[in-house]
Amino acid sequence: MVTGKTIAIATAVTAAVAGLSYVAYFDYKRRNDRQFRRKLQRNRKKAEKTAQKVSSLSLDDINDQALELLNIVIKEKLPESAEDKEQFFLAQVSRGETLCSAGPAGYTEAACRFYQALMVYPNPVELVMIYQKTTPEEVFKLVMAMMAQEVRQKQSRYFDAFPTADKFVSIKDKNKIGGGNKGKKAEEGKEVVTPNRGLFATKSFEAGEIVYEEDAVVSTLLPCAQNGQFCYHCLKHIPETKDRAEEVQNEAEPAEKIAEEPVEDAEEPKAEETEEKGDEEEKIDEEKADEEEKIDEDKASEEIGTYAEAAAAAIPATDVDEEEEEPKTYAEAISAGLTPEFSAKSSSALTCDKCHEAVYCSEKCRQDAYDGYHQFLCPSSTSSTAREFALLTQQSHELAPILIAKFFGLLVDREKKKELARALGIAGEATEADKYTTWEHLECMRYLELLPTTSDARILRKLGELMSHSVPGLVEFVTSDRYTMLKGKLDYNAYAVHTGVDVPTASESEIISDTMRDDHGASAVGTALYLISSHIAHSCDPNAQAVFSEGTDKIAIKTLKPVAKDEELRVSFVDLSLGKEDRQRLLKASYRITCTCPKCESEVSEKKEEVVEEPVAEVEKEVVEEPAVEEESEEVVGEDGEITEEEGEVTDDEASENDEDEEEEEEEEEE
């Protein structure tokens, strides 16, 4: 009886013999068949040409090919349910890997498969990073080019969907409505890359009205404001310990008054007795009452605890021989036996449970910050990379590296939360604007073209070490060009945040080189980036202003003068108290623009009139003064050969005339 094992062995032997026979046949044909050899050579050359063609394609050729492929794949219907998306994703990735293993001939179709897998993946940015690390360079270039073409197509529809109608503004290209300068006059040398767009009102506003409010995409505190008194996430001011102590004391005072009310009622019948007792007994009762109140105050101060101790200098009627120095850092507060809530950083601040350096105004801010970025930037992590990264950014005197690190952390976190909400069915109906990711919003912003520096390379390398374990492929995705592009977007679009709270003057080590749109003379608390407000253009004669009425990084655009429907909103990027030359110099150095607003033009015309009149006045002054000087003195040579002045004799009439001339000259000089 033939067993299964015997059949398997026989089958394996047969396959091996067949394989060896084919190898022998192939070798025989290759050696003896001329046509067969030519066919092999043609196939090999064809594959080499295909590989060379794919690798040598110019950027324009790749974009054209990507556009053709995109027009093909968008006709394919994508699954909608989570289960179908998962199966579709696995099938597309498997097919793409098989095509890549087949060689350059399959790269084009492989790019299409990887692109389709990208369309259903919950976190596209993460998958792009994986693609860059695992797929051939030619395939990755095609996938990225297809994404770029899709972005361009979405961008053509972007400004129809964003901003949403409830913001009462729209983004328009001024070149298309006849009010622009083709994007070249203001941005010389094409250094600012994007069309000449601006933000326009969709309805009329009176002066002092709020057009819209907007949350920040990413923000951070300035170094001078990182003193434990401002929230590291929303930049809100947190009351200090002494302020909180006074609040607690004020809260305790009404309770003391309520406790004293029954005593006053009880003392009412004693008022008649005091009249009979006399003056001496009244003094005794008053002294007893004072002692009782003092005892009550001591008990209340013991109950208040550290808050009352912190506010000892501000509370009257307390005898303190020596004031203890209040801890200034968290470490000093811990050594003094204080909890984070009672440290000098803030009375109500919540600190990071690990580093105890970052402070927050609420539990929500602390949790959002940790989920988004603080888990990477926390200096108390087991690795020293976070502290090394912070040290590099401090030495570079830039906030851009911190903002970029926060941006990528928040970007991944927001996409994950969106997908989770969709999976749980709590996302709600998505609007057309919701179809755009934060990165796609960022792609539509204008930016300054910058040159990479040596510090950029070190910071970028450390940034990859910091976040690569949680954001796979970040090192490959954030190249030097992308990093400098992000810095350019931050430099051109970031706003200075003013919460109305005084900030300590920045020391030499705390001065930063980052550019911020700031029309205030006072120091800012932090800097933030916004999706809508980034599209507002500059004017030294603005009709709107950025305000932060909630005391956080939430921005509100407020009108300074009446704004008509379809009128462009403009804010000032620089301090308007500066003169025209200083403003133009700052605008040129920071934003590479030359302002031609009515205010600057009027100042130019006034300057020209002054330049014409000044030489005339000087000439007239010289004509009047020279004869008077000649009449008053003569130059003579003394005995020692030195030139001296000899005064001539002057009559009374001549003296009076000279006095009148001098008075006239003084009046002319004053005029």
From TrEMBL:
Membrane topology term: Single-pass membrane protein
Region described as Disordered: 245-302, 603-671
Domain of life: Eukaryota
SMART domains: SET
Localization, UniProt: Mitochondrion outer membrane
PROSITE patterns cross-referenced by the UniProt entry: SET (PS50280)
Gene Ontology terms: cellular component: mitochondrial outer membrane translocase complex; nucleus
Pfam families named among the record's database cross-references: MAS20 (PF02064), SET (PF00856)
Main location: mitochondrion
Residues annotated as transmembrane: 6-28
InterPro entries: H3K4_H4K5_MeTrfase, MAS20, SET_dom, SET_dom_sf, Tom20_dom_sf
Compositional bias per record (Acidic residues), positions renumbered to this chain: 273-295, 625-671
Biological process terms in GO annotation: intracellular protein transport; protein targeting
Keywords: Membrane, Mitochondrion, Mitochondrion outer membrane, Receptor, Transmembrane, Transmembrane helix
Domain SET residues, every copy: 166-574
Similarity comment text for this entry: Belongs to the Tom20 family.
PANTHER family referenced in this protein's UniProt entry, alphabetically: EG:BACR7C10.4 PROTEIN, HISTONE-LYSINE N-METHYLTRANSFERASE SMYD
Protein name per the record: Mitochondrial import receptor subunit tom20
Taxonomic source organism: Coemansia aciculifera
Encoding gene (name): TOM20
